[in-house]
Amino acid sequence: MDTIPERTPSMLEDPPELDLGTAARLLRSEYGLDAEVTELRSERDRNFLADADGQRLVVKVSNSGDDPEQIAMECAAMDHVAVVDPGLPIPRVVPSIDGRAVVMVDAADGRKHQVRVMTVMPGQVADLAALPEWFAADFGAVAARLTRALQGFGHPAAYRRLDWDPRIVTSLRAYADRLPEEHRREPMLRLLDRFDGLDAATRALPGSVLHGDVTLSNVLMQDGGITGVIDFGDMHHTARVAELAISLTSLLRESNDLWADAGRFLDGYQRVLPLEPAEVELIGELVLARSAASVLISAWRAPLYPANEEYLTSLVAGSWRILDLLSAVEPAELAQRFHRLCGTSRVASAQAADPTLQVRREAALGGELSPLFYRQPLQVVRGEGAWIHTADGRRYLDAYNNVPVVGHAHPAVVQALSRQAAVLNLNSRYLHPNVVELAERLVASMPAGLDTCVFANSGSEANDLAWRMARVVTGRDGAIVADLSYHGVSEATAAFSTNTYPASARPAHVAVFEAPRDPADDGMAAAQRVRSARGELGRAGHDLALLAVDSVFSGAGILMPGSSFMRGLQDEARASGGLFLADEVQAGFGRGGQNLWRFQDFGLTPDFVTLGKPMGNGHPVAALITRREIAEAFVEVDEYFSTFGGNPVSCVAALTVLDVIEQTGLVARSGEVGAQLRAGLESLVPDLPVRGQGLMVGVEMPGAGDFAERLRDNGVLVGTTGPGGGVLKIRPPLIWESSHVEVFLSAFEAALR
């Protein structure tokens, strides 16, 4: 038989022997109160209910095994919670006549006991009531609030051992042989083996000094709400997930639908305190451990106190029900069930390498309909700053993705997104400050006259809306775009994306002009190209409504037009009766290294500006900025509404991106780091064209696709663009620094070899 270890002192000492008369006399002498006193139930202490002229109080006589420092800690904790979260329904300590929180009393058992008097919380004890449907979620929320309120509390007495602590349930192994039902003993011993590493597993998890016993027997309810959390007698320093498991176990003992109630409790809890995946991993094990502790402690203590047997065995039936149900589930599957309830399963499972993923993707996503990068596709699992991590453990420098404009998983953006998502997300037909502030900031960054902002979910949608407005305002239905342009994936914008289909497939209402590949191309050349394209439209029975330009001409190979050429496009479009659109989806947010918007480098004043990809640092959000008279003319004959466009979560992501760009000087950094990048490339490939500005750089070279594969082998991710994919597309997050340029150039040099 296992040796019985050292036990919690108050579990060894008999409860205090104090009668009603002594309790009444104590109240009169120490507190100046004349009261009617009745006894309350308790396991280790002696508790009384006192009615003093209508004021209801609890007289708590602590077990002599309780350390005075522990009692002082409980009083201090209640005072702390009352300050941190005054709305939490907990008792208040009533001081004695001379101001003491604790007084001493001589009991009939010959021992001295510590006594406190506390206010009575209204309501019925939850474990004596039928639990209504709302209870589980409210119980979870109250448990989390108390945990949060105690996070800043500390006390030396908290570092103590408690037999009820589920983390150390294996210390109760000796009592397995005392279980009344003999057939339960051997399975219990096997189950305890499962918990050998539980204490160590919680050491790295969030923890603090906590209540230790937020259970149904210590929670009161009344009139559709929880009205009290009482009895701080089990306070100790513990992992917050162990504290959660104690509360959840208490609920599940009374549950008729364990998983449904567990979900409701965890929903309520996470509305207050979101859990870490590592915490969720252990919830099931800790619930099992707490249930095991209940039956083992009952087997130990019930025979010692037969007069209190009913109370000491009250948790046994419910605990065995939990043990029978959950212990039959493999630990990994049990953890997954709680991960799914808490929403933490996908993040954890997506970190593992999956050799079937590519085949499954091709089967479900249409194969070549949605092609992957690279001949051997990467399974990406994590991004951090300028780096992307893959499932095989490699780390790659991201020199391609402009969507995470301020870096992958930027902490400020993640905070903003998650906090807003935890509070509210819905469509923008309600008043909300996020959408208004974002519109104001975007309009303020634009030239005078661009005073109206409309939100969408993608650059394609923003460009599509600009096209709809242009057709209404001009009464025409023709568009002019650059050759090898890209403007989106909707039916309208796909027609403008001339790099995605052969020239023979171009619809009649779309005409193209030659992108400015010659530095000598000026305003006159631009005007002539617009006139020529307009003539093509006219011959097909159309006229110019909209001229759209990606101001870096990315699809054409990342070109460097002069200001004269760009103004020529704009001015000729207007002279022809059309409207001019600056597509900033790739070029905007400071990528050019001079201004927040690339069109500003050329001194343009567009009729439309569209923003997309990097706007939310990976969260789908886009915008169209235009003039009020254009918007008003449009709404006279049509309307626009996007369910998700301008929602609070998307807008707070975009606002945070703007904050980061402004506060960390990313526009200027893009110019400086981009200049270093171009200079380094020009020295490595002096015979090849290196084009671009800021952190949008292209290198025209034979076999660009093969070279991109070699760069990948050397730990750098790039793309290709231009005619035939013959231009390396280098478009990193704007947070690149000189050290990232050095890594890139080193990999580039290795790929050249």
TrEMBL record:
Q: Which residues form the Aminoglycoside phosphotransferase domain?
A: 38-262
> What domain of life does the UniProt record list for this protein's source?
Bacteria
Q: Which InterPro entries match?
A: Aminoglycoside_PTrfase (IPR002575), Aminotrans_3 (IPR005814), Aminotrans_3_PPA_site (IPR049704), Kinase-like_dom_sf (IPR011009), PyrdxlP-dep_Trfase (IPR015424), PyrdxlP-dep_Trfase_major (IPR015421), PyrdxlP-dep_Trfase_small (IPR015422)
Offer one Pfam family short name for this entry.
APH
What GO molecular functions are on record for this protein? pyridoxal phosphate binding; transaminase activity
Q: Which SUPFAM superfamilies match?
A: PLP-dependent transferases, Protein kinase-like (PK-like)
> Keywords of this protein's UniProt record, alphabetized?
Aminotransferase, Pyridoxal phosphate, Transferase
The answer to whether the entry has keyword Transferase is yes
Q: Where is the signal peptide?
A: none
**What's this protein's family per the entry?**
Belongs to the class-III pyridoxal-phosphate-dependent aminotransferase family.
> This protein is called what?
Aminotransferase class III-fold pyridoxal phosphate-dependent enzyme
